[in-house]
## 1
Amino acid sequence: MIRDREQLAIATEYSRLVVTKLGAKPKRTRHVTSEELWRAFHAEIAKRAASGYAIEVEGTAVAAYEPRAFTSFPELERAVIADPHDDACWNVLADAWLDTNDPRGESVHAERALRGITDPDEFMARKHAIADARSLRATQLYGPLGADAHRVRVKFERGMVSAISLDAERCAPGRSTGELLALVLGNPFARFARSLELHELDGDRACSVFEQHHDAIREITVRTDELADLRTYSPRGLDRGFPQLASLSLTLRGGIESWDVELPELVQLRLLARLSNDVDRQIVGWACAHPELVELDVSDITGRPFALAGSPIAWPERLRAVRWNAHALEV
């Protein structure tokens, strides 16, 4: 966080809340339980925000939010989603945004100006020149989140959000994880985000990811915390909500209700949950029927050993790596 020129970092460290001012010794406060620690974390950020601090993104404090107009170009956007590394598609879309005063056009072109620069002085000069574009995109992304902004971390590529992470959800006040996630995924600057991670969630917050929609996301990681309830989860809806999904990693304290979701683009699946024999058989059949899957890693989170149903399995040749209950199998 930043106020005027004063910078402040707030973090958790094992059982301690750590508050650090630039140039000063960190202040560490121990808490007995993880719930107390995370409540203190959120309360400390709220207190600092009330005293004039703001979230810092790329070295700039998020300014007061004023909505800007955004324009959708569905055909051009589909082309970028189909090939996110195609410079020509990005240039055409960025030009179209510029013509309509969509701030994303300036952001994309500004970052492109930094690519391929090898001279340090020239790089820094250009970096200072695009500071306004970076400040604007940070405000348009984080401004709508209000007091929940600190719960969201992002990575930028080409002037747009490429990765989203929610790793401060424990005991978070304000919006539910589902509401916050929907707001972030629906932000125009997150239109082409490809990676989504949610860590240390309770049961209700973990379920929220299965209710979202975003047609550019390629990787999803969800991990419940050690105190999450033992509810049964269902991945239904992932295929409708994330049609481009290629990598899925789920670590769930509870069980899987069924595994009847269709993910035709999936290349990698990692599943750590409480598994029943019925679900085991479903996953085996599902893996053999999915044409793009090449890596499969399935284990019971309790450490309970279980045999593969119908072993030995005639795994398809395309499956180059299979781990079952933490053991590599011959494929």
Note: The first helix runs from residue 34 to 50.
## 2
Amino acid sequence: MSEEKLTPTRLVFIPFLIISILFPVIYSLLHWLLLTNYEIFEFDILVDYFLPILLALGLYVVFINSRIDLLDHTITDNVHYDGGKFLFIIAAIGITVPTIILQKTVHEIAGKITELGAISEIKQHRPTKYYNLKSYFIEKNYPGIYTNEWNYKLNTNFDVYIVAPILNSAQDTNLPKYDAWIGKIYRFDIDKNENSKVKEQAFESFTNKSIESFKNSTFTGFNHLERMRQDVSAYQLAAYQTDKADTEPIIFEAKFEPFEARAEGDLELCIFIYCISTAAFFFLTYNKPFNKYRLSRFLKIPYEDQRQPVRDPNYKSKKRRNRSQNL
């Protein structure tokens, strides 16, 4: 392609557009195949967050950054702004954020649903992400409880994990071990500089209210059960407190919305963010002038400085010629 036909749209925007479409799609497809083949249920921060960010930044550095560098960000002869950094932010949002959102959607749609007559049938089937129970009984009177205290910025956060066994019927409460549990988390925060005694009283009061709220929760009428993805070990520790938990207790979350609507809203948010970032990147690069020197180096062609020289390079030879004519 000749230099005259090159535009920022062709040289900068089109490569960004191709990468921002292909990378989220290919990465999500590979993730979906991984989930469906190996039945991975738990949340993986490496696969869902860090790996998409690292790969997207790598693609940006290799394919996009050098092209953005070709643009001339000079406003006037004396004023210059670092537009490359701003375009980097836009490009990073356009590639990484939709990819991360898509991974949540992939987790939702990749899981299969298994129909069970009762929870005791769960080990007779291959593990899946979702289950539909025809009959069940949830023993909420003797819940398992695990608390976790941690500091973040200016607050001390207090998490209360509560689980209750899922049984076939009320007659199964005397079983020695329970395989499946339903769980909920309750969160509370307080100023971390608060007096330790005040914190202790606040946390104790919150724990009691959380237990009461859990016991009053109506789990009847849920549409389906979903395996917990996040904080699974914390829920399992709550189950172990009852001495009724199996070696690897299965923790479920009750879902009341229809199974078909499990990924509703995520895809729309992904498309919205992608469209906004792509449009912003296009308008910030459209018809922007190139830096002629960097463009010639990128195209590996000789650079010709179009600026007029301050002094004529043939000035001395012309002066000698004029003197000889005068003689």
Note: The mean pLDDT is 84.
